[in-house]
């Protein structure tokens, strides 16, 4: 093996074997394992069903979307993701209908709050509860904390104040936050004067080399016992499958890699039953990759990983939602960078 590759694999192995430990995993023979979600002590499936994509599937075929939700639950996927903003509320409405008839009791239900102030946060919660046809959320996360002043706004404008009130009233069990832009902003949020239950962030092989949440934020979250939820597992934007064939990382490698990082769960976007079944097969009786296996995957990704070209949600504003752009007085469409 050439010395340069050997040296890289040694350094990649060091990266892949970071000091953090995976959350305690409860194996379920023949089913999808669960892991502890930080200080909540809740056991959530290592796969979470993504609300944005199930909403997209529902636009094409609602009955298929319902079958996918029920199949996920039957396979042991008990963590469902959504957001107030997805498909202008349709994703929550669809999921609410899909969870009727006793299915709601089988899932740890999370949705996201687009508000920063008290009034908008209240509107978001009331809308989400109505759409999801439930009287409480298991987890409510502040969505897209992507701008440097978002953490300040959540505290100064009253968003967290209202979330705590809702928690006291039994409408929300746990409170967390999400974002996809920069680990500095996540770390600022984690350092604010509140003990978050969870935080959601991009976790993929490219992230290991560019504005890395794995290296910069997961250790801080773990030190605070904050549950880590991964997203954008395939890299987001131009999928990793589009990189040159000699460095291509497969979708299965991406999923296995993400599940082998210190996350409680990863949110996956399925729009077909075949996609869902593929991930169920990966997750069933899942065992984390070894350090050497992770290092080999990182070696494949490294040539195109360092400049953000495959993580446009970090390097541009293309993936910043219009509600948040408007909130910050930015252009609603396109990339303003």
Which features characterize this protein?
337 residues, TIM Barrel, 3-stranded antiparallel beta sheet, 15 helices, alpha/beta
Structural features, described:
The chain is an alpha/beta fold and about 325 residues long. The chain has one domain: NADP-dependent oxidoreductase domain (TIM Barrel), CATH 3.20.20.100. It has helices at about 5-15, 50-60, 60-75, 90-100, 120-130, 150-155, 160-170, 185-190, 215, 220-225, 250-260, 275-285, 290-300, 310-315, 320-325; strands at about 25, 35, 45, 45-50, 80, 110-115, 135-140, 170-180, 200, 225-230, 265-270. The protein has an 8-stranded parallel barrel, surrounded by 4 helices. Strands 1-2-3 form a 3-stranded antiparallel sheet, with no helix packed on it. α8 (about 185-190) links the parallel β8 and β9. The longest helix is centred in the middle third of the chain and has 15 residues, at about 120-130. The termini are far apart. The model has no long low-confidence stretch (mean pLDDT about 90).
Short description:
The chain is of the alpha/beta class. The chain contains 15 helices and eleven strands. The strands form two sheets. It has an eight-stranded parallel barrel, surrounded by four helices.
The main β sheet shows up as:
8 strands, parallel, barrel
Report the span from N to C terminus. 42 Å
How many domains? The number is 1
CATH superfamily membership: NADP-dependent oxidoreductase domain
Biggest sheet strand order reads 4-5-6-7-8-9-10-11
Query: How would you sum up the global shape?
Result: globular
């Amino acid at each position: 093996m050439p010395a340069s590759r050997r040296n890289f694999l040694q350094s990649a192995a060091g990266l892949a074997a970071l000091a953090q430990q995976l959350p305690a995993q409860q194996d379920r023979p023949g089913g999808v394992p669960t892991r502890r979600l930080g200080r909540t002590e809740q056991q959530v499936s290592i796969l979470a069903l993504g609300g944005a994509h199930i909403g997209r599937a529902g636009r094409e075929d609602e009955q298929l979307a319902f079958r996918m939700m029920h199949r996920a639950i039957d396979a042991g996927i008990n963590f469902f993701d959504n957001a107030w903003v997805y498909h202008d509320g349709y994703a929550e409405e669809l999921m609410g209908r899909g969870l009727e008839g006793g299915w709601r009791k089988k899932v740890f239900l999370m949705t996201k709050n687009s508000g920063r102030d008290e009034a908008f946060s209240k509107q978001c919660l009331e809308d989400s509860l109505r759409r999801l046809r439930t009287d409480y959320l298991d987890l409510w996360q502040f969505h897209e904390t992507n701008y440097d002043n978002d953490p300040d706004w959540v505290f100064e404008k009253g968003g967290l104040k209202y979330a705590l009130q809702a928690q006291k009233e039994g409408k929300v069990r746990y409170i967390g936050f999400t974002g996809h832009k920069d680990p500095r902003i996540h770390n600022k949020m984690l350092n604010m004067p509140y003990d978050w239950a969870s935080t959601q962030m991009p976790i993929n092989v490219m992230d290991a080399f560019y504005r890395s949440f794995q290296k910069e934020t997961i250790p801080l979250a773990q030190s605070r016992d904050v549950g880590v939820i991964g997203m954008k597992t395939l890299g987001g934007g131009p999928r990793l499958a589009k990189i040159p064939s000699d460095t291509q990382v497969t979708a299965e490698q991406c999923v296995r890699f993400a599940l082998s990082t210190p996350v409680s769960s990863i949110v996956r976007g399925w729009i077909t039953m075949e996609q869902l079944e593929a991930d169920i097969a990966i997750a069933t009786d899942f065992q984390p990759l070894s350090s050497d296996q992770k290092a080999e995957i990182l070696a494949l990704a490294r040539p195109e990983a360092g400049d953000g070209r495959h993580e446009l949600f970090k390097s541009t504003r293309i993936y910043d939602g219009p509600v948040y752009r408007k909130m910050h007085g930015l252009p609603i469409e396109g990339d303003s960078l």
